[in-house]
Amino acid sequence: MSAVNLISAESIKLFSTRSPWWCNLLAMALPVGFATAAVLSWPTDLPISVTEVQLGYQFGMMLVLVMAALAVTTEYRFGTMRTTFQAVPGRTPVLLAKTVLVAGVAGLVGLVAALGSLGVASLLHPVSELGLGTAHELRAVLGVAPVFVFSAVIAVAVGLLVRQSAGALAILLVWPMLVEPLVSVIPTVGEPVQQWMPFMAADHFLRGASSMIADPVLSPAASLAYFGVVAVGLLAVALVVARRRDA
Amino acid sequence: MTLLAVERIKLFSTRSPWWCMVVAVGLTVGFTALMSGFANEQGTVTVGFTQFSYQFGLMVLMVMAVLAVTTEYRFGTIRTTFQTAPNRAAVLTAKALLVAVLAGVVALVAAFLSFGVSDLLATNSDLSLSGADTWRNVAGTGLVAFFAAVLSVAVGILLRQSAAAVTVVLVWPLLVEPLVALIPRIGQDIQAWMPFVAAHQFLFGGQPDSAEAAMMMGMSEVPYGPWAGIAYFGAISVGLFVVALITASRRDA
Amino acid sequence: MIEVEHLTKRYGRTVAVDDLSFSVRPGRVTGFLGPNGAGKSTTMRMILGLDRPTSGAVRIDGKPYRELDRPLTRVGALLDAKWVHPNRSARAHLRWMARTNRLPNRRVDEVLETVGLSGVADRRAGGFSLGMSQRLGIAAALLGDPEILMFDEPVNGLDPEGILWIRQIMQRLASEGRTVLVSSHLLSEMAQTAEELVVIGRGKLIRQCGTAQFVDEASGATIRVRSPQVERLRGALHQQGIEVRDEVVDESPTLVVVGTSSERVGEIAAAQGVVLHELSIQRGSLEQAFLQLTNEAVEYHAHNGATTGNEGTDR
Known about the structure:
The structure holds three protein chains of three kinds.
Chain A: H1 3-15, H2 18-41, H3 50-53, H4 57-78, H5 80-87, H6 92-124, H7 135-142, H8 144-162, H9 165-183, H10 190-194, H11 198-207, H12 220-244
Chain B: H1 2-12, H2 16-39, H3 47-50, H4 54-74, H5 77-84, H6 88-121, H7 132-159, H8 162-180, H9 187-192, H10 195-204, H11 210-216, H12 226-250
Chain C: E1 2-11, E2 14-24, E3 28-33, H1 40-47, E4 55-60, E5 75-78, H2 90-100, H3 105-114, H4 130-142, E6 148-152, H5 160-175, E7 179-184, H6 187-193, E8 196-201, E9 204-210, H7 211-219, E10 222-226, H8 230-239, E11 243-249, E12 252-258, H9 262-272, E13 278-282, H10 286-294, H11 301-304
Parallel strand pairs in C: 3-7, 3-8, 5-6, 6-7
Antiparallel strand pairs in C: 1-2, 1-4, 8-9, 10-12, 10-13, 11-12
Helix pairs in contact in C: 2-3, 3-4, 7-10, 8-9
């Protein structure tokens, strides 16, 4: 079974229903909208930084998580996962193809969202001289793409493990938005533990010193690597489970 | 009354509400236990501190409330429901009431268990339930969960689709409301009038640890008192529910 | 050729399929018969590698399903016509399936034509009637032009026209030399389509044989005799120890003879010089035969409360 065929089959699936389109459009529009709002309300004579412009990436990330999880859970809901496994009984190749496609789309969406935010901000706020000159700026903008890629991988994995839209979405939204930020409230251990939370690590990669992490052990680049390792590890677990389980 | 009884049967004859309730209490109390356990040494555990994790339970209860409606649409049972009781507003109100009361009770259980477990673990701190403000902080979570459930039922009715409705009720309070504050100049003024910020103000406003609690929501000063906060939150949730009722009555089932 | 060997599937303490062995040969329609909850769907899912057997194995032309290269070209199956995304068009559904097994898009158009869905191929499958969904499912099964085809309760809920169409297509597929396995809980349906039967109850094999043989054995063929000299014939048969029952057909007295051949009855009558107006073999209805054979194996849902098999449960 060639990889190209499987990815192409998955892309027919993904793009022949409406919800992925909606999720992806919103995932691009919301961050750009947030950037627009931020820039418009920023004092015209003070420069705004790339970090502030890119803050809305979190909206995009949530929608990417939703899109990627639904790509799996709707297949379980409508029974097409069985048809899929009937066509590719090895299961792992087709699930990998799905992950590659969904993650690739997520990466593109992230790139468009980030560049769109930057573009809108530079147009509306010429004083700021926003660009991709420094390493920090490069990370804050182009880094959104790999963060979205790994987020999608995590969402596919959770979708495979939970197999149920509402459950998977509840986990995928509550975890990064509530559990990870709230961990720091725990005295003594909260802050050291928090930086090992995957989405916090991703945030640290993108925003560096402005992230929520108090005393980072990892460098921003290492944080991204860590996020990727968590994502791929979770996917590996999900693939093993999906292979063993009754479809 | 019959409508309430019918909705009760429907809700409790499927598994997901049970799961949601268990997880709501477990997460809230578990997280509080973790917090209080580690905070014991410093002896800084306050009543407000024992309630910081109410959002865990709240989010799960909102998911439960959404699913109570959207699963009916998914399985087509909403048609059967409307067939057996053509007054849609009455049926949906019964459903909302039931789910909201249930959410309120579960939140209360979680709140008092959180307090209790902290009282046990934080031996160095002097915790007691005295004074109206303290009671508002603990028992108030029930009221917040009640209105949050009404709000969620409304979102469920309007969107009719689990994935979309769950996304909205989670992303709104957890991401939209905190991030709004980060819009320069106007952000914090807008945020003050966000519904879940108002609910938060009801629980923690004027409490000894209100500053720390406000940080969790990324909140700054709010220009109204705690009771105005819950009134505002309640008004928004009931208002949205009325909109949902009108929509559902007009629309094809 | 499908070979099922000692297949067992347990869900917790419930045994859905119990040491089941049978084989399905090419060139004919084989009926997979059993009451609801007997384990037919579970067995079919295991044949397709979707569910893991607790023990035992299934081989498709000598190999497990999971080891087949481009399996859609070897086995086509319709297990549930509703396994389609409701917002996806029929064509898109078939196109992604075709792509996974490197089948040309041309095949999609061909099978849509075969099942008569070309006109509605770009409509969303969620809006299809049951009959149309069933046709789409059959199109999906035919996509890889496979040698082996499996259909799970394909006529359920269809109108007479749809039922006829399904029967014809199954017979056509078998006449092309393919292996066709069709499940049903309706015996009358199997009598019309299947040449061979695999009968199961409570997950166990009851019988595998030809449809006609199954009926003969199960109901015990009876012989109907009409004669103006009924009393004399009855006496003669009794003397030979043959069991006889009285019946009245069209106002004329009739004997129903059990447990012997028509030849023997004729010889006895001739020896006695009895005039016969009718001497005929009566085949029992398939329905009767089935009930008789599966009686002890039938699952009594009413007594169990919960369904123990998986059929029909939406998991």
